[in-house]
Amino acid sequence: MARPGVPSKPGAASDASEGTRQALVGAAIEVLRTGGFHAASARRIADQAGCNQGLVFYHFGTVANLLLAALDAVSADRFERYSAAVAQAPSPAGLTDVAAAIFEEDLDSGHAKVLVELIAGSSAVPGLGAEVAARIEGWTDFAEGAISGSVDPVLLAATAPATEIAYGIVAMYLGLEMLSHLDGDRAKALALFGRARQLVALAGAMGILPDVKGDDPR
User: Fold this and answer.
1) For residues 40 and 32, is the Cβ–Cβ distance under 8 A?
2) pLDDT mean values, one per 10 residues, the chain (218 residues)
3) CA 116 to CA 179: how far, in whole Å?
């Protein structure tokens, strides 16, 4: 309610509401990163955001919806980063460098942990698993586009459809993220990226794949 004698500003209420919503999304991301899925309660997230826990349900209906909004926010950020990086390295060899660099970024920032925690906790909330899977499918589509744009269509036709390759890459990437969080050791995963880079370089030298168009994807 506006104070007597002070005209209310158009849109002020909606701005405040959106600010609260964004604060809750940011808080949910932080709680998932630092405390994991089991810690992501309405009270914990609201405390992190500095607001009443009732606002979680007012803005999102359920805690699960808030956690999905947090995942969407992280995904939007990473999609922008991935897209920019892939555009700078549109070749198979360059893509392996991109994948390795972003893999470390995701681990360092904790962005990967948000998805890992939602995957781990999805079985505890009815319907959450399907929502998380649908969002992962978007990344499979992204990977398919990157592959199709950098690998000769003739070669793809002779090996496997880009859709299947993309699914395998996303599955491997998620698996490596989960294992790296589990034991805290990223060296094994990075070694696999290194091996992939060597294999792609060898294939390029043999004329099977195109040459690298940029050594530094960052």
Assistant:
1) yes
2) 41 75 97 94 97 96 97 92 78 76 85 88 92 92 80 70 86 86 84 83 65 42
3) 10
Phi-psi region of 50 (alpha: psi -120 to 50; beta: other; left: phi over 0): left
Residue with tokens 């499918």: 137
Helix %, strand %, coil % of the chain (to 5):
75, 0, 25
| Residues 49, 70 contacting (CB under 8 angstroms) | no
* Backbone φ, ψ for residue 148 (5° rounding): -60, -30
Statement: the pTM of the whole predicted model exceeds 0.85:
no
- For residue 188, what are its two tokens? 């094994």
| Long-range Cβ contact pairs of 204-207 (< 8 A, separation 24 or more) | 204/92, 204/93
Integer Rg of the chain from CA? 21
C-beta neighbour count of 146 within 10 angstroms: 24
Residue 106 to residue 96: CA distance in whole angstroms: 15
CB-based burial of residue 115 (10 Å sphere; 0-12 exposed, 13-18 middle, 19+ buried)?
buried
| Angle CA 199–186–121, to nearest 5 | 115
Q: What is residue 215's predicted lDDT score, i.e. its pLDDT? A: 42
**Terminal C-alpha separation, the chain:** 49
Do residues 25 and 70 touch, judged by C-beta distance below 8 A? yes
